Amino acid sequence: MLEEFGPSLYSTEGPTVSFYGFPYPTRMAVVRLSNGSVWVWSPVALTNELVSAVEAIGQVRHIVSPNKLHHLFLAEWVERWPNALLYAPPGLARRKPELRFHADLHDDPDPVWAADIDQVVFRGSLAMEEVVFFHRASRTAIVCDLIQRLPEEEMSGWKGKLMKLDNLVGEHGSTPREWRASFLRRGPARAARQKVLGWKPSRLLIAHGECARTGATAIIEDALSWI
């Protein structure tokens, strides 16, 4: 159920979900922190097999949502691991008050995972802001909806054509057009992009589409050139 993406970094795919009628493949990430605990990013639906795979890595202590759309399965993960702490991106704690968040995510990583993971918030959008992470040991940028690289062979019909027009298909990918338009203040987003490029990531792990094990810095620079 979990594939090793890099040192102490694992991923698995969840079910394809519908977003306004468009099919989206999903993916989550799991990191074994240097203190032995487990950090979970954008969790997908739980299965018995996934529970066993995660617990083979370590005890889940931290569960993060990268943006306010990725909350569908948070409750079942917290129910399974009630001692885990839940972290909210900008806007999600207000949107889902029934979820008991431990803290909000900011530009500085929580001290518990700061030695292993860096982060930055892409601010300036009226619609949604996203937290992007960097796993130091594997030199992996972990990006949710800001970069989508959907496989061309799976994009058929008029929906596929629209996604291609949005530059969400193919090797480099990009950000959905309507979300790009919502960044009325691009200065903060440019600063965040510069921080991500400054990490010089080798790998790119994303929620929607094809990840990259090499050349991540160039892919990110091109995919976010609209900023």
Notes on the protein architecture:
With 227 residues, the chain is of the alpha/beta class. It has one domain: Metallo-beta-lactamase, Chain A. It contains seven helices and eleven strands. The protein has a seven-stranded mixed sheet with strand order 1-2-3-4-5-6-7. The protein has a four-stranded mixed sheet with strand order 8-9-10-11, with helices on one face. 40% of the residues are buried. The model has no long low-confidence stretch (mean pLDDT 90).
The helix tally amounts to 7
Q: In CATH terms, what is the architecture? A: 4-Layer Sandwich
What's the number of extended β-strand segments? Answer: 11
Reading off the top of the CATH hierarchy, the class is best stated as: Alpha Beta
For the termini, the CA-CA separation is 36 Å
Rounded radius of gyration (Å): 16 Å
Mean pLDDT: 90
Number of domains: 1
Instruction: Strand order, main sheet: write it out.
Output: 1-2-3-4-5-6-7
Biggest β-sheet strands, sense, barrel: 7 strands, mixed
CATH superfamily descriptor: Ribonuclease Z/Hydroxyacylglutathione hydrolase-like
CATH topology: Metallo-beta-lactamase, Chain A
Helical residues, percent? 10-25%
- The coarse silhouette is globular
Please state roughly what percent of the residues sit in beta strands, choosing from under 5%, 5-15%, 15-25%, 25-35%, 35-45% or over 45%.
25-35%
What is the H-and-E element order? EEEEHEHEHEEEEHHHEH
The secondary-structure class comes to alpha/beta
Flag low-confidence runs: none
